[in-house]
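Appendix B, example 12.
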Amino acid sequence: MEVRTELISHLREKFFKKLDDEGPPDPKFHPADIARVKENNNWLRRFLEHNENNIQESLNMLWDTCIWRSKFGTNEITEENVRKDYLDIGLCFIHGKDKDGKTMFVIKCSLHTKGSKEFNQLQKLVVYWFERLERLTNGNQISLFFDMSDTGILNMDMEFIKYLINLCKSYYPNFLNYIIIFEMPWILNTAFKIIKSWLPPKAIPKIKFVHKGNIHELVDPNDVLTCWGGSNEYLFKFVSEAQNNIDTTMNGKFDSRKVHFAEGSPLTEQSPSGFGEQSTEDQLLSIEPDAVIFNKSGNEIGGSILLKNVTSDKPLSYKVKTTSPGKFRVRPSSGILLPQEQRSISVVVQQEHNVRALLHVDKFLVMCLPLKDPNTSAQELAALWKVKKHLF
């Protein structure tokens, strides 16, 4: 559905008018979500698409989503505060693409029985993966893939499935491409009828039943696992997001290479008066991992780092520099991080350079400046960093 730019602007205006008229809810909206409403047209577009361009329904959903995100602590969820055993078991994971090129989120139902896990931790697990998918796909649609092979009545946790559906229905607008159900046992037909009743009418056509004989019609043949009747031998192993933002599939005998950060990174600079706060005593920015690990994906050689503003109240401006600017492309090399916000930074080796020539002399310097105003313009930031140029 086409969404006109003026509708997006109208939705944004109505949101902030409601905020001015009613005041912030309790708890207050998270600064990262407020910034998202201000700056991210694509996110607002999804609410309008989800509600067929109905402004009022889109506003209600956007408002409720921001309330839920604040109460649930969505912006604070990371792999460090999700139960590691839940991450490692492989109940949920990202794998492959559907026939439309949309990323699939796999739920392996045989690995879960109702009551076997703390439900609040199970909720947190799913939200962690959904947020990771949002970052991975830039908010593009995904397909839920329910792997129901080897499942029985005990594996049908209706509360868990209802929670998954409600997330997509209420808080992740226009997120679903397909709901692919693989090898559903006939004994679960009655349970599925109940599940189907929870879905909005427009979501019913998204449901697709597949088995080993026809899975290739919905899933990219290259991504069909051996356990689904294909030839892809992938076995789930949890990989940190910081190491997985660029596909680490190895081609041939390519050896990964590491480039380390300059001593003292992240380096905190004091900002000129009017821009920021003069404090360098506390840690402001965290970097993961401790070196950029380069791997090959298709014709591209790249790696990634994860920057996180670890403060609870300070927006930060960050900047990433390299000793070899002609060798690397860093995106985004600078920007603003709101309190507790994290961002993946990709580092790609320029095609004319050979990754095997990467030397220990190649370094990256990560710098940050605390800001008073998170709405500092790009021009003001450029001027700010230009003032600091003599320090580098």
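The radius of gyration is 23 Å. The longest helix spans residues 119-137.
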